[in-house]
Design a protein that fits this description.
- The chain is mostly beta strands.
- The chain folds into 2 domains: 80 residues, Multidrug-efflux Transporter 1 Regulator Bmrr, Chain A (Alpha-Beta Barrel); 64 residues, no CATH class.
- The chain contains 2 helices and 10 strands, in the order βββαβββββαββ.
- Strands 1, 2, 4, 8, 9 and 10 form a 6-stranded antiparallel sheet that branches. Strands 5-6-3-7 form a 4-stranded antiparallel sheet.
- The longest helix has 13 residues.
- The protein is globular, with a radius of gyration of 16 Å.
């Protein structure tokens, strides 16, 4: 008899963090919500994985970051490494810095797609504590390279939502 498949993950407690300025180098991808080519996201991730070794000055070469932001029309998502400096940006990549910011943060471990949603947990936390999301702030997702993030597989992710 086979073991039942676990389809619910676990999420830690939401905590508030202040992170100093963070620098990143990697590839952006823009997608329109209406009629957008969402397959560009996977292609950009593949390109990042193929070329990540070109990025110099990685802070933690075992993890990658996916900062993102959106408006009512589209979103921009990045695949990148955190770096100690923005010199030597490889051809076709983008370097940028996120200023010191406060975040509500949660770690999720479990199957992908995630349940419970770390984003829902962050929204509930903000509402319960009367904390506002920082308008125009970048959400940060942090992954380990050994997590492939394929549907049905295990994932470990930190999600950091910018707050005021």
């Amino acid at each position: 008899m086979s073991e039942p498949v676990m389809n619910v993950g676990t999420a830690g407690e939401v905590e508030i963090l202040t992170l100093g300025e963070m620098k990143f180098v990697g590839f952006p991808v823009n997608v329109s919500f209406k009629d957008g080519d969402f397959s560009k996201i996977g292609r950009t991730k593949q390109l990042f994985m193929e070329r990540k070794s070109e990025i110099r000055h990685a802070v933690d070469p075992e993890t990658y970051w996916a900062p993102w932001y959106n408006c009512e029309v589209m979103f921009t998502y990045f695949y990148c490494l955190q770096v100690s400096g923005l010199a030597d940006i490889p051809e076709g990549m983008m370097g940028f810095a996120i200023p010191e910011s406060r975040y509500a943060a949660v770690r999720y471990e479990g199957p992908h797609p995630w349940e419970p949603s770390p984003y829902a947990l962050l929204a509930e936390f903000r509402e319960a504590n009367r904390i506002s999301a920082k308008e125009n702030g970048m959400v940060l997702e942090k992954y380990r390279f050994d997590d492939d993030c394929k549907p049905g597989e295990h994932i470990s992710i930190d999600v950091l939502g910018p707050i005021v």
